[in-house]
Amino acid sequence: MRILLVEDDVLLGDGLRAGLRQQGFTVDWVRTGDAAERELRSGAYAAAVLDLGLPNLDGLQVLESVRRAGVAVPVLVLTARDAVPDRIRGLDAGADDYIAKPVDLGELGARLRALVRRAHGQAHDLLRASGVQLDPAARSVTQHGVPVPLASREFDLLEALMRNPGRVLTREQLEQHLYAWGREVESNAVEVHVHHLRRKLGAGMIHTVRGVGYMLAGSPA
């Protein structure tokens, strides 16, 4: 799951990025309001963690701007401004959740997973399809109750497909989901991960829509 982290404090940002990566998130980190606005408009992220006190543009200005532009990415506001009027302003500006510093990394990860779950209309965190169950919090997969060990990228690709039943995801969309900035991506990386998933979960688990991309088995084309 690819997350945008917007935090101008270098020490805090580095710690948040490391902590979220340990929980399996792919994290891109920016430190200014204008960079945050640009990246949020790109549509490349499942969710964002947004500080309010930013250079160039205040976090609330960023949030109001992208919401006016129709950007629907879930945004969790992370800030030291924890008074009730500040929380109300953030939520009214378009924030989906609000958490005050200092933050517990486990709670931050859980809140991000909850935001993404709600954005996809899912009532609980467990994802199920064709006898396969995926637990994003535990980063575990079972098939008919039997644990299936997956590499990190395989897990992330399967999660992306299971969060989008009925949708064909292009190779570019899957690459955006799997890889943060600065990570070299082999031209056939997605195809390799799909091949490994089919070998572990069965050839019919993932369908190729020729010339378009991939989708879960049983999803209407």
UniProtKB/TrEMBL annotation:
Residues 124-218 bind DNA. Pfam families: Response_reg, Trans_reg_C. This is Winged helix-turn-helix domain-containing protein. Transmembrane segments: none annotated. The keyword Transcription applies. Keywords: Cytoplasm, DNA-binding, Phosphoprotein, Transcription, Transcription regulation, Two-component regulatory system. It comes from Ramlibacter aquaticus. It is found in: Cytoplasm. InterPro entries: CheY-like_superfamily (IPR011006), OmpR/PhoB-type_DNA-bd (IPR001867), Sig_transdc_resp-reg_receiver (IPR001789), WalR-like (IPR039420), WH-like_DNA-bd_sf (IPR036388). Residues 124-218 form the OmpR/PhoB-type domain. The keyword tRNA processing does not apply. Residues 2-116 form the Response regulatory domain. The modification 4-aspartylphosphate is found at D51.
